[in-house]
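Known limitations

Files may contain more than one protein. Parsers should not assume a single record per file. Below, a two-record file is shown to illustrate correct handling: read the sequence, read the token line, then continue until end of file.
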Amino acid sequence: MVILGLTVLSVPAGILLANAAGPDVPMAGVMILVVLGIICLAITLVAAIFIRKGHNWARILLAVYTGISVLTLITNIGLLGWWAVLALVIATVMLFRKPSPQYFQAMSQYRQHKMLKQPY
């Protein structure tokens, strides 16, 4: 949830920085920034919702997204600020540490059990 907040804050911060650069910044560049920010927000939101539900694919999605975010930060494209990328890295590391795999396995077993018990 912290990452969602930082993502929401990074888009207006990027627009303010683009405006501070002067009137030479094309409007298309600002629109690309907004669209990419919305995409980043959507990826983070989907990952957060499905991680909470215990879906392992969402954990992998967040790991891939974190890797791409780190690469964009290193290459100085930096859609997200360094604080948001740092929060992503911390969250991803926590999702692969000791208690998390048991949670995802338990949730998977719960969903399988729930599906078997439902009448058709």
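...continuing to the second record:
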Amino acid sequence: MLMFLAGVIDQMNLSLEHIKKGGAHDARFGLMLTDNAVELVLHQIAKDQQRD
């Protein structure tokens, strides 16, 4: 679980780096990374709920 969370945090950090660059393409890529991270977390929560 810690490795999963570390991966999500790394992805969010990369997203922030791209958003800070200020370009439209970088911002779009940052948004896609953020969206992917949120989806991964929600999927993990759903799997945990189903298991319990």
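Parsers that stop after the first record will miss the second one. For reference, the second record is described as follows. The mean pLDDT is 95.
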